[in-house]
Amino acid sequence: MTGLDAHLPPVPAERLQLSFLRQRFAHPPQWQAEIAGDGAQWTQRDPAAAAVLLPLVMREQGLSLLLTRRSEQLRDHAGQISFPGGRVEPEDESIEAAALREAEEEIGLSRDYVEVLGQLPVYSTVTAFQVTPVVALVRPGFDLRLDGMEVAEAFEVPLHFLMTPAHHQHHRFEYAGGQRQFLSMPWRNSEHPGEPRDYFIWGATAAMLRNFYRFLSA
To answer: Does domain 13-24+45-159+204-217 have CATH number 3.90.79.10?
Structure first.
C-alpha cells in the first residue's frame, strides 16, 4: 500500500438516502470521473462495449451494495470481486438492458426487483472493454440463483463503508515494461457465519466505486 485517503470526507449520510439518489441521477451536477480506466491496454483487439450493474439493496439499516466473487474456474479474473455484468450483446436494447440481463444470468437477480437510477461514466479496462456502470436500487425479497460456472459467491457491503475514503487504499506494482497503480477497498464481513471473511475489492471495481464517490460528493 502506498497511501490511504483518510483526509477526504465520507459521503454525508443524507446523500445515501433514496430521495437524494433519485434526485441526483435525475439532475446530475457538473462533475468529472476521477479514474477513466485501468491505463494502457494489454491487448490489441478492438474495444468492446460492456455493462455492469451496481445493485444497491434497500435494507432497513441502510443501502448495501451487492457484489460477486468470481469463480476460480474462470480463465480471466478468477476469484476477483466484481459487479454482475458483461459484454453488451446485439440483442440488448440498451446498456441498461444488458446490465439487467447479465445480473439475471449470473446471479438470478430478477429485474422485477430493480429500479434503474442511471449511469456513471464509461470505464476503460486493460482488456479493451468499455464498461458502463448502471446504478440501480433493489427491493428486498429477491432470491438469488448463482451461475456456478461464473460466480462463486454473492455478498453485500454497506454502501457507507465504500463511500468513506478512509477505507480507500492506493497501491502500485511494477511489471516488465512499466508500472500500474490501483485502488482497493478491503472489507471484512464480521457477520459471516463462522469465522469473519475478508474481501479484497480492487482494480476496476474499486475504481468505478471511487467515481461513484465523486459523483455523490459533487
So the answer is: yes
